[in-house]
């Protein structure tokens, strides 16, 4: 993002946002909220609005093909949908519901039934308490990460990703970016069988990766495999276009090849 300041008043005259994905469109929205109607907000996008929040058409039906699911603790997305009004939360077509099963490549070794206690017993019989340890670990990480909303509410910013992670989860979060997910889970007491049969497939589905992925990213992926997930009916990408419209941003079809600071400029008030 490039911001031009107008001396001698240091008043923001215009802002250029690169990319119209959820990050860029949300930035345009927050810039408009913070600086008001006088600021010109230009958003440069070489492709389609939405970025990773994309859909693909198959047999005349659209399906989520990028960021397909939204966690219930994503307070910003909840607020965006609420403000936009015409958008409605629903169920992602990539996760249409139904029963869960574990397939080892040759046969189904575990399949969900209509009996919760039976499913719980079968999970315990095959994996011990690995699934409980995993659930508690993910919930603890999510609880710490939720602190970010308090920082944002007080207008606090961070100069680096490391500083942000340290403020949320201390050295534990930073260490999680430097070690494989498999090592963290084994240290937690999760069995190798559970990692091979459950964790590894989740990593492949969500990120196309294996359990050597950094533990912090793996925890985010595991949070995306929980039950409390939702999507926007018609495609999550509509949140991006809605935010740009609400921000009254100028969408420019162009590719940005370089960004440089602007040292001069005149702005008359």
UniProtKB/TrEMBL annotation:
A Pfam match: Prenylcys_lyase
Q: Where is the signal peptide?
A: none
The molecular function GO annotations come to: prenylcysteine oxidase activity
Which keywords appear in this protein's UniProt record, sorted alphabetically? FAD, Flavoprotein, Glycoprotein, Oxidoreductase, Signal
Q: Which organism is it from?
A: Fundulus heteroclitus (Killifish)
List, for all copies, the residue spans of the domain called Prenylcysteine lyase: 110-261
Q: Which family does it belong to?
A: Belongs to the prenylcysteine oxidase family.
Record InterPro entries: FAD/NAD-bd_sf, Prenylcys_lyase, Prenylcysteine_Oxase1
Which coenzyme or cofactor does it need?
FAD
Q: Its Gene Ontology biological processes? A: prenylated protein catabolic process; prenylcysteine catabolic process
Q: What is this protein called?
A: Prenylcysteine oxidase 1 like
Question: Do you know which PANTHER family this protein is assigned to?
Answer: FARNESYLCYSTEINE LYASE, PRENYLCYSTEINE OXIDASE-LIKE
Gene3D superfamilies, per database record: FAD/NAD(P)-binding domain (3.50.50.60)
């Amino acid at each position: 993002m490039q911001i031009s300041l107008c001396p001698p008043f240091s008043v923001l005259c215009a802002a250029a946002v690169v990319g119209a994905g959820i990050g860029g469109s949300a930035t345009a929205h927050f810039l408009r909220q913070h600086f008001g109607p006088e600021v010109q907000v230009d958003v440069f996008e070489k492709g389609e609005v939405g970025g990773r929040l994309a859909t693909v058409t198959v047999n005349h039906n659209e399906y989520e093909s990028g960021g397909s699911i939204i966690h219930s603790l994503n307070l910003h997305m909840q607020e965006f949908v609420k403000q936009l009004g015409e958008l409605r939360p629903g169920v992602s077509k990539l996760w249409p519901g139904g029963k869960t099963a574990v397939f080892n490549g040759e046969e189904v070794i575990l399949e969900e039934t209509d009996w919760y206690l039976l499913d719980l017993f079968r999970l315990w019989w095959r994996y011990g308490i690995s699934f409980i340890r995993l659930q508690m670990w993910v919930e603890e990480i999510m609880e710490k990460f939720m602190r970010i909303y308090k920082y944002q509410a007080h207008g606090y910013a961070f100069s680096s990703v490391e500083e942000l992670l340290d403020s949320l989860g201390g050295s534990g979060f930073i260490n999680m970016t430097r070690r494989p997910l498999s090592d963290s889970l084994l240290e937690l007491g999760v069995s190798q069988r559970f990692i091979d049969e459950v964790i590894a497939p989740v990593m492949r589905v969500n990120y196309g990766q294996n359990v050597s992925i950094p533990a912090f990213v793996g925890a985010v992926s595991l949070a995306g495999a929980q039950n409390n997930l939702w999507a926007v009916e018609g495609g999550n990408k509509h949140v991006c276009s809605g935010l740009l419209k609400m921000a009254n941003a100028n969408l420019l079809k162009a590719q940005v090849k370089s960004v440089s600071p602007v040292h001069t400029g005149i702005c008359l008030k």
